[in-house]
Amino acid sequence: MSTLTQTTDETISFHGRFFQDDIALTQRNRHAPPREEVESASPPSIAPAETSETQSSNRQAAIITVASFTVVFTCCGINFAFGIFQAVFETLSHQPDTPFTGASPAEIDLIGTMSISLMTIGAPFVVAWAKRFSPSLISLIGSIIFSASLILASFGKALWHFEVTQGVLLGLGTCLSYMVAVTITPTWFTARRGLALGIITSGTGIGGLVWAPALKAAIDSMGYRNALRLAGGIAFGLNVAASYAMEWEPATKARIQMENGARTSRMDGILKVPIVDWRVARTRKFVAQALGAVFQSAVYYLPLFFFATYARTLGYSDTAGANFIALSNACNAIGKIAIGYAADHLGRLNALVITTIISAIATVSFWLPSTISGDLATSQGLFITFTVLYGIFASAYVALFPASLVELFGIQNFSSVNGVLYMVRGLASLVGTPIGGVLIRSHSTGGPSTSYEGMTLLTTVLLFAASFSVMWVRIEAMIGADGKLVKKWKL
């Protein structure tokens, strides 16, 4: 019996080590008595029921982490592997009697752009629906739309068919599932919020690492149409299973239930989206954070979408181009987890500033020179270096962004601020990514690789603008309620 008890305790300890501090700290923050009562009271004993409740919370947090990772792995992984389809569709554009015959790179890129943009444009509505109904239901609906869009795309006969299915519908399905995952997860964590979101959003990189070569192999063996059908079927199984685990943190759920109980009509909360409190929206730190989100997201997806096609201008094969996407996504996953962990110790805003600056420096130091270097070997080396650095540091912004919102605006404003700023990010990518695609052709004044010079210049300028914006956010975070600057290192 003692051996069994010891084994059980060790299992619970191992299972809950990552989550226990967060659950306990969250409960203390939300339910702690006034300081005077704590100081005068004798140390309370831990009741068995309380221990059981903590263990149950640990398990639920673990399940939600795995489920959210699965959703991000599937939805974002397939979206981030669009570069594989971009390369295939561009090849087909030079062949007669295909859905893409005569289409420009920018027109083809619009498929992936719409999907990525819509992934976050509908964020305020998804957050409202997840609160009005349940996160599980909204994620489930998204899973069905996501898989259906890929299968419907496989029957496309014209470019606009793919723009509607693999673009619009895929983006809507991703939004419903992805936004649920990144919105409910932060409510379960406090001390390790950065690491938790790093693990979950690393599903983007790991998903791209897996999906990019898998889709390339499927396309080579069975054609792009059957590859779309296969991806849709696999995604359905993974996303539906993960959707059933989606749930609000208990204290957050209780607050949401009170809000729902105060609603005056059934339509309230369905069409009415959470609006950011004007007292929050008018602050300089909100404006700075919004500007940073616009600049960063406007160009963030450009390298990811064009890795494969740009690699071909440097003499690489289609398979090697797919491997560049996989390499970037592998670095993406490593960066989100490692930097997420470091952010919990160094400060999430500090990490946001550092990673945004490094991603801008990597672009101007490596990608831009690779487009104008006259030596092929030098250009290849610069591009490989850029792929690694951009994958590690640019992707960290995505993981740190929601965690920084909690730090800046508080958990009580998180849902509304998160929804609105994610919508802003989606709108920015909807504008910036097509512009980058157009610049590829409009700046074709030299060899094949120089045709990307304009796009790399745009990426460089906006990433540096994003860097200045997040530095502004960091400064604003040190200003107290009295308007005075208080020097703080860990933010």
Automatic annotation (TrEMBL):
One of its GO terms (cellular component) is membrane. The chain crosses the membrane at residues 61-89, 110-130, 136-155, 167-189, 195-215, 227-246, 286-308, 320-343, 349-369, 381-400, 420-440, 452-475. It is found in: Membrane. InterPro entries: MFS, MFS_dom, MFS_trans_sf, Proton-linked_MCT. It holds the Pfam family MFS_1. PROSITE patterns: MFS. SUPFAM superfamilies: MFS general substrate transporter (SSF103473). It is a multi-pass membrane protein. Residues 29-54 are annotated as: Disordered. This is Major facilitator superfamily (MFS) profile domain-containing protein. It comes from Trichoderma asperellum (strain ATCC 204424 / CBS 433.97 / NBRC 101777).
